Amino acid sequence: MSNTAASQEIQRFYEINAQEKKWRNKVAFRETRRIQFVKEFPLTRMEKIEIDDYAIGRNKNNFCYSIEQKYKDLGYIFGSTSAKFGVYFGELKPDTSKKWRIGKRGLGSTPEQAFLTVRENIVDLIKNSVLLTQKEFDSNEVSSMLKLKILSIYHPVTYLPIFSDSHLAHFVYELGLPVDGKGHIHLQKALMDFKQSHEAFSKVSNMEFARVLYETIRPTKEESDKAKNSVIQAKNLIDLELSSVEEFGMSLSGPFGQGKGKVDYEAKGREQCATGEAGERLVVEYEKNFLSSNNRDDLARKVNHVALKEDGLGYDIESFELDESPKYIEVKSSKESMGRSRYYLTRNEYEVGKVKKGYSLYILSEISKKKGQLLKLDDPFTRKDLKIDLEPMQFLLKMSKS
User: Fold this and answer.
1) Same domain, 64 and 124
2) Mean of the per-residue pLDDT values for the chain?
3) Is residue 283 part of a domain?
4) 115 & 36 share domain
């Protein structure tokens, strides 16, 4: 599932600009440049390239200078030292003498050995036109940004020319795309799957698609950093066949206001209440089905939707693990896609969640549809492997006479 608003935004931009001569000329020019680079550094040359023709430091007619500077229009990999190339000729403070340097530990005990390791790994990248697994990508000794630029130049159908993990994460986050795990390849795959599933982009080159993303939802540094911590891994998501919310007698329709006009807060409040209660009922249904399918009908009958009777407990549903240990579930629901939604938490819910054993946060997305995704977070406010950003939205104002 993807964030509809963001996907519509990039599609509108593409439809408006795609046929303009200036746009088409830039797309054609970059493809010509990519072909020029491959001709300048074909596989046959890279298999035998010498250190002076590879590394930065002695001349400008080398592979590293070309891929970073000369062909920067094929994607930027600035922002770090020449160490990213594995081997280079230059200084390493406090030593100001210029000589061959090793840019990364483990490549070899001498610059010559390090270069041979890097050359072998680059050749492996050029030879392999199939999408690497994350493990294969990580095991290759070439630095990540350089690795991705090499892959996108030599295998333009397989890889997007987006080399920063924070930029990849930003685009995935903005489009609301779940990913299969951590790392560059998982993020690339999520974007490629999105591209192929949309008719407007399925036949567009990866280079052109990347440019559309940068033109429409370009990240700031703050947004990129936030996205890296916000991308939701698909392995943590559960696909649900959800009952229609209409059977609960609730309407989940808007709008609440248009443009810069006045928002109908009463309607918005009713909508949020309906969405919240629908989500809670769906989780009750999910918990009962889970217990019954594991031969615990006795526990399924005890699942209790406590929020219908009491608001101050700090959770909505009492359920059970299969071993009969109690489970206390707070449900947050949204019509938005999983990676795009914001959820509101009361101080009481937060305080209870920090101390209550068996506390879980269940997050439901797109519950206005018959299909949705559920993210289950056990001990969400105390576990160290999960980062949740909490932003104060309201304050209690007390006044007294001095």
Assistant:
1) yes
2) 83
3) yes
4) yes
Whether 214 and 355 share a structural domain: no
Other Cβ atoms within 10 Å of 227 Cβ, number: 22
CA 373 → CA 229, 236, 243, 286, distances in Å? 19, 10, 13, 12
Helix-helix angle 165-174:221-230, to 10 degrees? 70
Q: CB within 8 A of 38, min separation 6: which ones? A: 153, 154
Residue 118, Ramachandran bin (φ over 0: left; ψ between -120 and 50: alpha; else beta): alpha
pLDDT in tens, 290-314: 899 889 999 999 999 999 888 889 9
Would residue 84 be called left, alpha or beta, if left means φ above 0 and alpha means ψ between -120 and 50 degrees?
alpha
The answer to whether residues 64 and 95 belong to one domain is: yes
Which pair of structure tokens corresponds to residue 227?
């996205």
Q: Any residues with CB less than 8 A from the CB of 255 and at least 6 apart, and which?
A: none
Q: How many domains does the chain have?
A: 2
133 with 268, same domain? no
SS (H, E, C) the chain: CCCHHHHHHHHHHHHHHCCCHHHHHHHHHHHHHHHHHHHHCCHHHHCCCCHHHHCCCCCCCCHHHHHHHHCHHHCCCCCCCHHHHCEEEEEECCEEEEEEEECCCCCCCCHHHHHHHHHHHHHHHHHCCCCCCHHHHHHCCCCHHHHHHHHHHHCCCCCCCCCCHHHHHHHHHHCCCCECCCCHHHHHHHHHHHHHHCCCCCCCCHHHHHHHHHHHHCCCHHHHHHHHHHCCEHHHEEEEECCCHHHHCCCCCCCCCCCCCCCCHHHHHHHHHHHHHHHHHHHHHHHHHHHHHCCCHHHHCCCECHHHCCCCCCCCEEEECCCCCEEEEEEEECCCCCCCCCCCCCHHHHHHHHHCCCEEEEEEECCCCCEEEEEEEECCCCCCCCCCCCCCCCCCCCCCCC
52-78 pLDDT, tens digit per residue, is 999 988 888 899 999 999 999 999 888
Question: Could you list the residue range(s) of the whole structural domain that residue 186 is in?
Answer: 4-233
* Model-wide pTM > 0.85: no
Domain annotation covers residue 387:
no
- CA torsion, points 63, 56, 107, 188, in degrees to nearest 10? -50
